[in-house]
Design a protein that fits this description.
Elements lengths: L11 H30 L5 E14 L2 E10 L2 E7 L9 E7 L6 H6 L1 E2 L2 E10 L3 H8 L5 H12 L5 H9 L10 H26 L5 H20 L3 H18 L7 H14 L7 H19 L6 H26 L10 H21 L6 H9 L7
Parallel strand pairs: 3-5
Antiparallel strand pairs: 1-2, 1-4, 2-3, 4-6
Length: 380
């Protein structure tokens, strides 16, 4: 059947106009970032207010020091301290930063800068009640940090990070497009149950899918504001908004031109993505999924759909593996378990979210700790 959706652009003139529009957006984005950079650069040692995202120790020349990952109003940067610091994670601080060696390119990519005169401020991270609610459901620190990473995008503990790399499931622990897909599906299911009776009696003229889609997008945006920092989630959220717009404008979402213009739009608004390898991995993953949808149509039968999803997961895994293992050569045979663990995560993630909401978040802790205690074979 012929595709009757209108084209994204009708001629080259419209493409040129849109490209110029994106260039103007890019200039404004870079101009704003440069204004922030120039403001800091104009001071010898600017005073910066930040929230501590992570804190860990490193050793060099037999001397240990702390590395701090800080969230600020201009982005994320790293600094170090040789002081005997207590645990500052999720605390608010201010400090003096030696900014003289930071270039504008470093500022865009994310930078390291020496600092001094670090002072702890009053007040806690606004997510502390939620963080405490999740933590109280787990007696083991590794499980507390595991679920805080899974739901709040906190740093993943080293033990879990090594296990995820061995099993090829690192993408499951970084809140991103995969999680947005799961949350969107759950949102459509739950909101649909509430919305359909209201629509039937009060506004039957409304478009059900459009209204639920808008509500789901609003919830996803609120979730991002709650996370405060998650570059992978922001990329996926922006792509979701673009996809929603294209779909309800009647445009063919699976056209490659739409996909490439969406990438250009993201780069215009977020120029720092140009330096993000994760962004290009995400784009390639979405591209492979689009190509699968484009050339393999969704069947009707239940088991045919099950096989379709399994093939989609397998094709994405093997195609992305070619790229990922080119940049990160170590390989573990256990990564083949990703073919099973990734679809299982689709059920596990919303179920554990519900379990934590009901106060039973620790129900699988003993099983997961046994899995963690297994010694995976070394990477090849």
């Amino acid at each position: 059947m012929k595709n009757l959706s209108p084209p994204l652009f009708f001629n080259s003139k419209e493409r040129i106009v849109f490209a110029l529009f994106l260039c103007s957006i890019l200039i404004c984005s870079l101009g704003f970032k440069y204004h922030q950079f120039h403001t800091l650069k104009s001071q010898k040692t600017p005073l910066i207010y930040a929230n501590v995202l992570s804190q860990y120790t490193k050793t060099k020349n037999a001397k240990s020091y702390f590395v701090l990952k800080l969230q600020t109003k201009f982005g994320i940067f790293y600094t170090t301290s040789r002081e005997d610091l207590k645990d500052l994670r999720y605390k608010n601080i201010h400090l003096r930063v030696i900014f003289s060696q930071v270039s504008f390119l470093d500022f865009l990519k994310g930078f390291y800068a020496p600092s001094f005169n670090l002072i702890l401020l009053e007040g806690e991270d606004f997510r502390k009640p939620v963080r405490d609610f999740i933590s109280k459901q787990h007696t083991n620190p590794l499980m507390r940090e595991y679920y805080l990473s899974l739901f709040l995008s906190d740093p993943l503990p080293l033990a879990w990070r090594e296990l995820s790399q061995s099993y090829g499931i690192s993408h499951l622990f970084a809140i991103s497009g995969y999680h947005i897909g799961i949350l969107s599906f759950v949102g459509f299911m739950v909101l649909g149950l509430l919305y359909k009776p209201l629509q039937k009696y009060y506004f039957p003229y409304r478009n059900y899918y459009f209204d639920i889609g808008i509500l789901v997008l609003i919830l996803l945006i609120l979730y991002y504001l709650f996370l405060t920092q998650s570059p992978s989630y922001l990329r996926a959220l922006a792509m979701s908004c673009v996809g929603f717009f294209l779909t309800f404008r009647g445009l063919d979402l699976l056209k490659l031109e739409s996909f490439f213009w969406s990438i250009a739009l993201l780069l215009a608004f977020f120029p720092n993505l140009i330096f993000s390898l994760g962004f290009y991995f995400s784009c390639m993953g979405v591209l492979y999924i689009f190509l699968f949808f484009k050339y393999f149509k969704l069947p009707k039968g239940f088991w045919q759909k099950f096989l379709y999803i399994a093939l989609l997961n397998a094709s994405t895994f093997f195609l992305m593996g070619i790229i990922i293992y080119y940049f990160f050569p170590p390989f573990s045979p256990l990564s083949l378990f990703s073919l099973l663990l990734t679809p299982l995560f689709t059920l596990y993630y919303p179920c554990m979210l519900l379990a934590h909401f009901l106060g039973f978040g620790g129900i699988l802790d003993s099983l997961l700790l046994k899995w963690l205690s297994l010694n995976p074979p070394p990477l090849l």
